[in-house]
């Protein structure tokens, strides 16, 4: 019997094992178009096998195939037969990605049920949603009909898959909660702006459909602070905090200067933000035209600079927002704008640099394989973020081992050497060192 004193309780339906079951239920609804009724590998088993590969952070499909007879994986993920790498690619390639996007909403509903999202509340009881684009495949040789095709100035052709992700963030939380991911498709446009804008509109539409009552403040980089995108956000009923740079918004910043001349540029100073005596100055002005082309699009401006003790600028940020900006709200708005970087640091950088192998080509296929695998990896990442946010046992093991990479390595080592019935059993064994410091039987 496991020593329960070592494993502080978490909400049962938010444990990794419960979320694996939740995803299995979702995957069972995915249509399998294979004509052979007596298939060797049911689609749900193949999808759960791929999820297992990303949960344990196997560096490649071939590495995962070496453990396809592992009884622990079969037990933890309720899989009867794990396919080979080529079989997995072939079976997953035609899968419709819609059900995978619905799976994010399934987990979100469990987080709401468990009250976990209360600590993510932001302005006016809503949530802060960061949106940004990223690439998850690039090659000069491998391609499929769905690939984005780009030609460089020297005439070389690059093939790529990209997507736009939306994650819940909070200035005081290190965890992020992926809400939805929208692939950028070949028909989205020829320029980066058009591609991301069209995909982002579909993403917003998806989020509104899945979460019609969710109050959101969307935060994005300076490419998003344009009139058509602001119109989209307003159409869906979302607030916004969007980056704005002087070089890209000259007319707006001219208006900021004029507001200062007319004593309409307000300011707050935050003293001693570090031990060296640095301080922070936050400014705001209300109802300024976004640009000359759209004088009727009025936005509130917020700027924030960190300065050394002798007044030299260390860093400077600026945003446009539709939130009411007052002395009572401006610092919270600025904090929301500044923590937009969590989608880069805690999401994309974590996926690329902390053992998830986000940019590794697990398989490209000819239809949807690359996107299907990316979404399954993001679901595994979401499960890890939920565990980090609300599972004391996972938190204790991560603290003990010191890094995510160490945790993933020890997870793989444990299932290579011992048989487990659940993910929780592995964590308990790692916390108690039951997988180490044992003599072999004589």
From TrEMBL:
It comes from the Bacteria. Residues 150-381 form the Transposase IS4-like domain. One of its GO terms (biological process) is DNA transposition. It holds the Pfam family DDE_Tnp_1. Residues 25-105 form the H repeat-associated protein N-terminal domain. One of its GO terms (molecular function) is DNA binding. InterPro entries: RNaseH-like_sf, Transposase_11, YbfD_N. This is Transposase DDE domain protein. It comes from Allorhodopirellula solitaria.
